[in-house]
Every structure is written in structure tokens, then in C-alpha cells.
Design a protein that fits this description.
Blueprint: E1 2-5, H1 14-21, E2 27-30, E3 47-49, H2 63-75, E4 80-83, H3 85-93, E5 98-113, H4 117-122, E6 129-140, E7 147-151, E8 159-162, E9 165-168, H5 176-185, H6 200-204, H7 207-233
Parallel strand pairs: 1-2, 1-3, 3-4, 4-9
Antiparallel strand pairs: 5-6, 5-7, 7-8, 8-9
Helix pairs in contact: 2-3
Length: 234
């Protein structure tokens, strides 16, 4: 398993705990420290792409090679998972587009299950609506062949699945320290709270309870995403 990190404060977080729980080893490629991307994906069990403040439309030298790796992994049926920027990278790699969302979405906001067969599969047993963490100003389109699994009033496309590939606009990987770190590092974005952008106080009130509730959703999605690999170990 390879995890691609695009900025040091946006690492795998809770996902690292889940991988450890299932004895899934991984290698962290620190793009933010100019670590080289692998030339191929031979011998790799899956790809994970984390978030970051950049855009997939920026002229950064690592974006096109990373899109190529995503396409190769998806074509081979390997599990591919993206969070926020990572989800946008997946969309673009599979022929989708990334553009400005109607509003910035920052903080804890509700997400609901879509009425699609993929949503019934990936979100089986979860409630119709749940609250997850967000920090984005852009959004992805749904590539041809993919199915929407999550949506919201603030952002129509919150997640899609395409085979063993899962793209998320929201952040499933959050831990309480990560929320607090981001609120400090990106505090300028919280200077003028609106309905879709929470203040620091609103974002961190009852944080442990919010994290615990979000983990119920993360556990379901992460385990479903890991299912092909877990089945191979039985």
C-alpha cells in the first residue's frame, strides 16, 4: 500500500490506525518533501491519496505522474482511495473535472447517502444522514462509469465509487489533534464565519464526540474499501 501525502499536516490520521488494525503495511510518499513518486505500481496492493491546500488544476510537476499512477491502479482493479484533494485527483485521473464549489465548506456539516446501488453497497447499515468534517473550496465531477454515494446541500458530490476506487470530498481520516492543528494552521480561512464556514469555537466544541461519531462512518467505508485485500488474506 502506498499513501501519498501532499502537505505534512494532512497525513493518514485515523486511516493509519485502521490499516494497523487489519495488519496492512504501507509506505508514505512525502510529496511535500519532494520524495520521488514510484515509477510503477508493480507489487503495490493499493493507493491512498491524502488532502492538501493546492488544486489539481495547478501546474505542479507531480500531478500528471500521479494521475497516471491512479489510472494504472484503477485499470488493474487495485483499491484506490482519495480524501478531498485525493478524491479530486481520482476524478481528474478518470476523466472528471475539478472546479469551484458554489461555497467554501469548512467544519462539521451533514452528508447524506445517495439513492444509488453503490451507496446501498458502500454505506450499508449507516443512517441516511451523518455529520463529517470538511475543508474545501473546490469540487469534483463524477467520472463516467462511477456512481455517486454521498451528497449534501453544500456540495452535491461528496463521494463516488467506481469498482474498487473510492473518492471522497469530505475528510474521513480526522483525529481531534488534526482538527485543532488545521484550525490553527489555516486560521485565516476562519476569520469570517458564515453558514458553511465554521468558527474555531464551533469547529472544536464537542470535538471528541464528533470524532467518535464520524469514525462509525469511516470504519464502514474503510472496511468496505479494504474488502478485496482482506478477502485475499483469508
Amino acid at each position: 500500500m502506498i499513501i501519498f501525502r501532499h502537505i505534512d499536516c494532512e497525513g493518514p490520521g485515523y486511516l493509519a490506525e485502521v490499516l494497523a488494525q487489519y495488519s496492512m503495511p504501507y509506505r508514505l510518499v512525502k510529496i511535500d518533501l519532494n520524495e520521488a513518486l514510484p515509477g510503477d505500481i508493480d507489487g503495490t496492493s493499493g493507493l491512498i491519496l491524502m488532502g492538501g491546500p493546492m488544486s489539481v488544476n495547478d501546474p505542479l510537476p507531480w500531478i500528471e505522474p500521479l494521475l497516471s499512477l491512479i489510472r494504472k491502479a484503477h485499470a488493474r482493479g487495485l483499491p484506490v482511495l482519495g480524501h478531498c484533494l485525493g478524491g479530486q485527483l481520482i476524478s481528474k485521473a478518470l476523466g472528471g473535472t475539478v472546479s469551484a464549489n458554489p461555497v467554501k465548506e469548512i467544519g462539521w456539516h451533514p452528508v447524506r447517502r445517495s439513492n444509488t446501488p453503490a451507496a446501498a453497497d458502500w454505506l450499508s447499515g449507516l443512517p441516511q444522514e451523518f455529520t463529517l468534517f470538511h475543508w474545501h473550496g473546490e469540487t469534483f465531477s463524477i467520472p463516467e462509469g462511477a456512481e455517486l454515494i454521498m451528497e449534501s446541500d453544500n456540495c452535491r458530490h461528496q463521494g463516488f465509487a467506481h469498482g474498487n476506487t473510492l473518492a471522497l470530498q469530505c475528510h474521513m481520516e480526522m483525529t481531534a489533534p488534526m482538527v485543532e492543528d488545521w484550525a490553527s494552521i489555516y486560521r485565516d480561512e476562519l476569520a469570517h464565519p458564515i453558514a458553511t464556514v465554521q468558527s474555531l469555537e464551533e469547529m472544536t466544541t464537542g470535538l471528541d464526540t464528533r470524532i467518535e461519531a464520524a469514525r462509525q462512518v469511516a470504519d464502514k467505508l474503510y472496511r468496505r474499501w479494504l474488502a478485496p485485500l482482506l478477502a485475499a488474506t483469508i
